[in-house]
Amino acid sequence: MELEMEMVAPKFATPARSKHYQPAIALGFFKSAGKAENFAPGKSVFVGNEGAASLFSEGARMYLLLDGEVTLSVGKKTIGTVAKGEVFGEMALADQSLRVATAMAETDCTLLGINRIDFMNLVKTKPAFALSLLKALSERLRFMTSKYQ
Questions:
Q1: Helices 116-125 and 127-146: crossing angle, nearest 10°?
Q2: Which of 55, 59, 60, 84 is 20 to 30 A from 94, comparing alpha carbons?
Q3: Cβ atoms of 95 and 72 closer than 8 Å
Q4: pLDDT reported for residue 110
Q5: What angle do CA 80, 50, 34 make, to 5 degrees?
Q6: Which of 52, 61, 67, 79 is nearest to 110 (CA)?
Q7: Is residue 63 within 8 Å of 39, Cβ to Cβ?
Q8: Distance between CA 89 and CA 72 in Å, rounded?
Q9: Is the pLDDT confidence value at 58 over 90?
Q10: Residues 69 and 109 sit within 8 Å (Cβ to Cβ)
Q11: Which class does domain 15-139 fall in?
Q12: pTM for the whole thing?
């Protein structure tokens, strides 16, 4: 028996929509070790349920959108969009489970991607971004749980 859950996208579906997000700190963090990647419209950045994210897989990456727009969807339902300066895919760094959402380039996009190992190494010398990310994720979790009370 498979559980079906309705995906509820909060107003701040990405950390960048949190009051704790600091774009300049995020950009500095990603520029330190991020790998620039370009995506044409219609190309997927990552696909939901496409294999577990091992330590060295692409699923173990998070991204900062430098230019363009990315759509996040689950199945055929759009759950949010990512705009210039926003971070997405951050949950893949938190665990090694399947991605739930698919991220698709809506326009020509330029991203900075960072893998789990580089993220963990950078946190040691630049903890400010990780702290703002944790606060944003905590805020998102509180919002989501309040919807079910």
A1: 110
A2: 84
A3: no
A4: 97
A5: 65
A6: 67
A7: no
A8: 10
A9: no
A10: yes
A11: mainly beta
A12: 0.78
